[in-house]
Amino acid sequence: MPREWDLIVIGGGPGGAAAAAVAAMAGLETLLLERGGTLRHKPCGGILPEITEELIEEVFGAPLPPEVLAEQWELRLRYTPPSGEANGGRVRESRLLNVKRDHFDQWLRDRAVLAGVTVRQNARVSDVEANGGFSVSYSQRGEERRATAARLVGADGVHSLVRRRLAPNAVAPKMLVGQRLVQVAGELPADFHCVFAGMLSPFYAYSVPKGRLLKIGSGMTEEERTDLMPSLDRFSEWLEQNGVADLGEVVQQEGWAIPFGEQQLDAAGALLVGDAAGLCNPLSGEGIRLAIESGQLAAEAIIEAGLRSPVPDYRDGVTGIAQMVAALHRVVLTTDDDAREQFVAAELARP
Ligand SMILES: Cc1cc2nc3c(=O)[nH]c(=O)nc-3n(C[C@H](O)[C@H](O)[C@H](O)COP(=O)(O)OP(=O)(O)OC[C@H]3O[C@@H](n4cnc5c(N)ncnc54)[C@H](O)[C@@H]3O)c2cc1C
Questions:
Q1: Of ligand 1's atoms, which has the minimum distance to the CA of residue 259?
Q2: How many angstroms separate the CA atoms of 235 and 237, rounded?
Q3: Span 185-212, mean pLDDT?
Q4: Same domain, yes or no, for 211 and 283?
Q5: Residue 199 forms part of a structural domain
Q6: Is 211 found in the same domain as 116?
Q7: 34, 127, 144, 279: which to mutate for ligand 1, most atoms within 8 A of CB?
Q8: Do 247 and 160 belong together in one domain?
Q9: Which residue ranges have their beta carbon within 6 Å of ligand 1?
Q10: What residues pair up with 253 in beta bridges, in sequence order?
Q11: With bands split at pLDDT 50, 70 and 90, how would you rate the model's confidence at 2?
Q12: What is residue 166's predicted lDDT score, i.e. its pLDDT?
């Protein structure tokens, strides 16, 4: 049966946009399906390590434009250990980018269009079938549609439908992350501030300035989900008591998740990237760069493989990222306040 597309990518976040753009630039007829509309909201801190700038230029063929950057577009990284502010400080040579995530994702999708990708937004995928190639069912503005392709990339995030449909027995544990946007009286803190203290969160708590508001967040286990919002209350108190910020009204509150533990890099011949594959740093919650890198690697494996299965090449290519994430997961699982104290001391002592 002739297939309409060389490649269908499901999900138009950083991972999907990267995979689709790289594939289209190599001449593959590529369809990207994204359930959200223009400027779809994704709960996120919007913080990128400096190195992502170069990666984005390489994958999307242009530097990040000013309109996707937050007002405080360049930040330093500040760590505080369980013993408190007195033993915390800025990590030397740390430079982070602060993006407006909704605008950032839309720009990535726009770049994918310029690379030759057919992007369909408001297109929610409801089913995926592997049948030698792949058939995808989706609805767009009330109309039920189907598309077929030789290759499939699942870039549909932490609750990936592609992963659930094509690897139904795979487990996908998660870390929950709560966020609030809060008004601040007086000056906003100028850093991306990470606080490691078991009484706040078993993982991390962070704050980041976004325009005139402060975004605060914290991570929680799935078992302790009822403690997610109370942990944000504790962190708000902590920020005030430690003189970091004088917090006012909560403007927005949300909860989402990051993958936490099990990876699934492919399923029935489809390649999974970013959060769908379980590739997110559990120590810092950083996942955007890993999504772009794994998306790029998936597209390169598909291009390289030609008529062969791209699975072995992709597994090979993504090994470094997968091993790093697995190692960090082991670290996080065994962390207590003594280990957090040592971690921050070591990071701040780094030359
Ligand atoms: C609260 C919070 C804060 C975070 N802060 C940071 C941070 O500061 N820096 C950082 O690097 N990372 C951060 N992360 C992690 C980061 O957001 C993710 O790792 C990253 O977005 C993964 O990119 P992705 O492309 O794999 O998935 P996503 O960005 O989740 O994109 C998946 C896309 O697939 C679409 N989709 C899903 N299902 C379907 C369907 N059925 N049909 C069609 N489309 C579908 C979605 O609409 C979405 O656009 C944070 C995560 C959370 C939860």
A1: 19
A2: 5
A3: 95
A4: no
A5: yes
A6: no
A7: 34
A8: no
A9: 10-16, 33-36, 40, 42-48, 124-125, 155-157, 161, 177, 179, 217, 256-258, 274-276, 280, 285-289, 291
A10: 180
A11: low
A12: 98
Q: Which residue has the least CA distance to atom 51 on ligand 1?
A: 44
- Helix runs in the chain, H state only: 14-25, 52-60, 101-114, 161-166, 228-241, 274-277, 288-305, 311-333, 337-349
Place of tokens 């995808």: 136
With 90 as the cut, is the pLDDT of residue 1 above it? Answer: no
If asked whether residues 288 and 311 sit together in one domain, one would say yes
Q: Which residue, judged by its Cα, is nearest atom 31 of ligand 1?
A: 13
Cα of 275 to ligand 1 centre, how many Å? 7
Total residue count of the chain as it appears in this document: 351
What's the mean per-residue pLDDT of the chain? 96
- Alpha carbons within 13 angstroms on the beta-carbon side of residue 342 total 6
Residue 340 domain flag: no
Do the domain assignments include residue 287?
Answer: yes
Structure tokens at 256: 């989402």
Ligand 1 centroid distance, CA of 42 (Å): 6
CA 158–ligand 1 middle distance (angstroms): 7
Looking at the structure, tell me whether residues 33 and 108 fall in a common domain.
yes
Band of pLDDT at residue 305, cut at 50, 70 and 90: very high
Last residue of a domain, one of 225, 258, 291: 258
In this structure, is residue 58 part of a structural domain? no
